[in-house]
Amino acid sequence: MSSDCRNHFATLAVHAGASPDPVTGARVTPLYLTNGFAFETPEAAADIFALRKSGYSYARGGNPTGAVLEKRIATLEGGTNAVAIASGQSALLVILLTLLKSGDEYVSANRLFGGSLGLMRRLEERHDLKVTFANPLDLDAFAAAVTERTRAIVIESIVNPSGDVVDIAAVADIAKKHNIPLVVDNTLATPYLIRPIEYGADIVFHSLSKFIGGHGQVIGGIIVDAGKFNWAGDARYPLLSEPWEDYGGIVLSEKFPQTAFGVAARVYGMRDLGPGLSPFNAFLALTGTETLHLRMPRHVANAQAVARHLASHPAIAEVSYPGLEGHPNHPLVQRYTPEGPGAVFTVRVKGGETAAKHLISTLKIFSHLANIGETRSLIIHPATTTHKNMPPEERIAAGLGPDVVRLSIGLEDAADLIADLDQALAG
């Protein structure tokens, strides 16, 4: 099936980018466990390495199993191309290193996955990629953080771990005003709930380890190029706008006007830096996409039921889930995610850190681990784990005090999840 077909989401989730194997007729995308690919001629090999011709050379830069995954996610997100990569963390790393050089600046939301925040601080300390953090829910403050030296804006569509939905279109307007790309981590929403490119995003990325893979089996990431940003002649982005002398002087924005960022991320990020995605993980993630449209409604419905129950529980001080009516972020939920704002949120437990950790230790169905977006429900204490490297005052400002736990609601029966929480909170 053509990757640019106009079918509905469920059909694309099953078919986009894939077709029966031309040699064997196998209908499921084969798992290509090879690290190298034979060339037809020396001239063909030279053309592939020089980017004059598409094709496979060495699996670090691409694999046929991963290529189907790339086409499928790019189609679901509405992008022109994608790059499957070793993890969501490496996806963000490659995006930043492709866009910025030492001394450049960018603005990032201050409410992000803890690993993203840690990576950004480390890149500033060691590589002089200067980040300015701002609250994405305060648009005036966010706009004020952008200067003439800013080269990109980075946000999450749905914030990890609070579950807040960001006004993507408004942030995109800020980016367009300064002619800089907007990068959106769409991991918590998936393209089933939000397609950030439709609201002005230029680059979208995911941790495949979460809802897209969906079963807690995969470590992987993917970068999607919207193909809309005009990189041509823009000296701020030399990898996109200036000649690559070691590739015969090719200028990616001229050679690949609609896919330039994806090509740069592959050539620099994959060939040079090396975080390739294993074909086995690509196969598992590809299989996960085929049920994404079935799993996400169940995740959301369960999250809504659990959040509503906890909001009235006497042992709970606060529930951050913006799918609840009356939550200050609820109007953005109605605009961007009418089917619900995902399945990850935080709660504040009365009794402080001791009570929060007691809750975690006493649950029987919820698993205590650091992932999110699995079929099973998960819980963790962010202040001492996923977000422990944040300065304490920033953790508090982000709503991650010692009394907070993060929930990722799975596909179990909601009544059983509620009963498990009740028995644990009773202690």
From TrEMBL:
Pfam families: Cys_Met_Meta_PP (PF01053). Gene3D superfamilies: Aspartate Aminotransferase, domain 1, Type I PLP-dependent aspartate aminotransferase-like (Major domain). The keyword Hydrolase does not apply. Its cofactor is pyridoxal 5'-phosphate. It comes from the Bacteria. Keywords: Pyridoxal phosphate, Transferase. InterPro entries: Cys/Met-Metab_PyrdxlP-dep_enz (IPR000277), OAc-hSer/O-AcSer_sulfhydrylase (IPR006235), PyrdxlP-dep_Trfase (IPR015424), PyrdxlP-dep_Trfase_major (IPR015421), PyrdxlP-dep_Trfase_small (IPR015422). Belongs to the trans-sulfuration enzymes family. This is OAH/OAS sulfhydrylase.
